[in-house]
């Protein structure tokens, strides 16, 4: 079957490697998506294992349409009875980039009418629409005059692992956090430290990676469990195999801190929900006052971008980050995600790598700083 895994911009290559590790074939990397072929096992496993996927889509039909009438007619030809029962509910999500369909909601409405009318004409009854908790999720994508119809096998976005309770004021997506960690190359065998942990997403995702804990083991449900061809035995076997891969070591080299009491408590609660609180050392401290772990490793931070800070304070804040890195983190690999490129200049260090990522709608840079111990110089007047 033809499958598509969607992701965040900048994480396509990382997701492709995850997909490849599951035995998928014909892998093609696109913008915010990875296309591949696989069987039912691949579909289920991608949902369970992939840390950087948002949704796993199963392609149904691709065709050309330039009018709502063409969209309706060609959509109605799809054998929807194969994917949906009349007593089930469905919802349609859509992305439309086309001069021929300027009202994206109207395009989705025409698809809904085509499905409903086909059922009514053939069976005398039709499935109902439920936008909140449908049995079947249908995805409509229109690019110019190309129409792509698919089933969303994941249902709710895969970034919703289930361990996050009350929202932090500026939460980092679980998928973005997992992708950032994988981009660093950290393998779980050296210390990991997030000194501005917020809701704890980075250290929790790091613990999951270190323990080989697949996101699907956290207990969420999937839309494919409502599909007519759902193979429960196969799905249970995939979960069992994933459970066998989990490491049970109690040794932890994952550290997380925050200067805010509420964030500190929230991150600990989230780690408890993920049953990973024993793997992470949480403590209250500012980055400037915190003592680094005794052995050098990988540090990732997502500092404030300055939306609520005066410029002078933001400059001092980023300068202090650079000063602490130079003074205390020799031998470390430090990664910083920021949307404020002007502020990043005041870190005063030359990044060895720059990766474009998006934190929600904000375009960011993920900077890597190699804090060499000894004679190699890291200080530079070059701008990031």
The average pLDDT is 93
> What gyration radius follows from the Cα positions, in whole Å?
23 Å
Following the backbone from N to C, one meets helices and strands in this order, namely EHEEHEHEHEEEHEHHEHEEHEHEE
Instruction: Enumerate the strands of the largest sheet in spatial order, edge to edge or round the barrel.
Output: 2-3-1-4-8-7-5-6
Uncertain stretches of 5 or more adjacent residues: 375-384
Terminus-to-terminus distance:
44 Å
Task: Give an account of the 3D structure.
There is one protein chain. It is built from ten helices and 15 strands. The protein has helices spanning about 10-20, 40-50, 70-75, 105-125, 175-185, 200-210, 230-245, 260-275, 310-330, 340-345; strands at about 1-5, 25-30, 35, 55-65, 90-95, 130, 135-145, 145-150, 190-195, 255-260, 280-285, 300, 335-340, 355-360, 360-370. Mean pLDDT is about 95; it is low at about 375-384. An eight-stranded mixed sheet has the order 2-3-1-4-8-7-5-6. It has a seven-stranded mixed sheet with strand order 11-10-9-12-13-15-14, with helices on one face. α5 packs across α6. β5 (about 90-95), α4 and β6 (about 130) form a beta-alpha-beta unit. With about 375 residues, the protein is an alpha/beta fold. The two termini are about 45 Å apart.
Task: Jot down its keywords.
elongated; alpha/beta; 10 helices; 384 residues; 15 strands; seven-stranded mixed sheet
Topology:
Blueprint: E1 2-6, H1 12-21, E2 25-30, E3 33-37, H2 40-49, E4 55-64, H3 68-76, E5 89-97, H4 104-123, E6 128-129, E7 136-143, E8 146-152, H5 174-184, E9 192-194, H6 201-210, H7 232-244, E10 254-258, H8 261-273, E11 280-284, E12 298-301, H9 311-328, E13 333-338, H10 341-344, E14 353-359, E15 362-370
Parallel strand pairs: 5-6, 5-7, 9-10, 9-12, 10-11, 12-13
Antiparallel strand pairs: 1-3, 1-4, 2-3, 4-8, 7-8, 13-15, 14-15
Helix pairs in contact: 2-7, 3-4, 5-6
């Amino acid at each position: 079957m033809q499958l598509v895994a969607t992701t965040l911009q900048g994480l396509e290559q990382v997701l492709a490697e995850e997909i490849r590790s599951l035995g998928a074939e014909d892998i093609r990397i696109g913008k915010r998506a990875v296309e591949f072929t696989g069987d039912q096992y691949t579909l289920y496993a991608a949902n369970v294992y992939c840390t950087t996927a948002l949704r796993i889509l199963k392609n149904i039909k691709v065709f050309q349409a330039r009018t709502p009438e063409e969209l309706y007619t060609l959509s109605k030809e799809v054998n929807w009875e194969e994917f949906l029962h009349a007593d089930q509910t469905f919802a349609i999500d859509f992305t439309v980039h086309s001069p021929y369909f300027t009202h994206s909601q109207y395009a989705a409405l025409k698809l809904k009418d085509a499905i409903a009318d086909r059922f009514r004409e053939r069976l005398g009854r039709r499935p109902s629409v439920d936008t909140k908790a449908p049995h079947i999720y249908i995805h409509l994508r229109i690019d110019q005059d190309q129409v792509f119809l698919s089933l969303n096998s994941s249902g709710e976005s895969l970034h919703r692992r289930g361990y996050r309770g009350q929202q932090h004021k500026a939460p980092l997506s679980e998928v973005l956090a997992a992708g950032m960690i994988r981009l660093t190359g950290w393998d779980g065998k050296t210390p990991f430290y997030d000194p501005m942990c917020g809701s704890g997403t980075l250290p929790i995702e790091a613990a999951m990676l270190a323990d080989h804990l697949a996101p699907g083991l956290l207990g969420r449900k999937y839309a494919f469990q409502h599909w007519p061809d759902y193979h429960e035995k196969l799905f249970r076997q995939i979960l069992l195999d994933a459970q066998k891969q989990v490491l049970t070591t109690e040794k932890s080299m994952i550290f997380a801190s925050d200067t805010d009491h509420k964030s500190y408590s929230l991150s600990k609660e989230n780690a408890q929900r993920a049953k990973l609180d024993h793997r992470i050392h949480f403590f209250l401290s500012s980055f400037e006052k915190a003592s680094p772990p005794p052995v050098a490793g990988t540090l990732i931070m997502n500092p404030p971008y300055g939306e609520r800070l005066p410029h002078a304070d933001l400059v001092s804040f980023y300068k202090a980050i650079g000063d602490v890195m130079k003074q205390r983190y020799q031998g470390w690999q430090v990664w910083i995600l920021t949307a404020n490129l002007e502020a990043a200049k005041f870190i005063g260090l030359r990044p060895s790598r720059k990766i474009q990522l998006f934190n929600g709608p904000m375009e960011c840079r993920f900077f890597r700083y190699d804090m060499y111990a000894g004679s190699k110089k890291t200080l530079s007047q070059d701008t990031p």
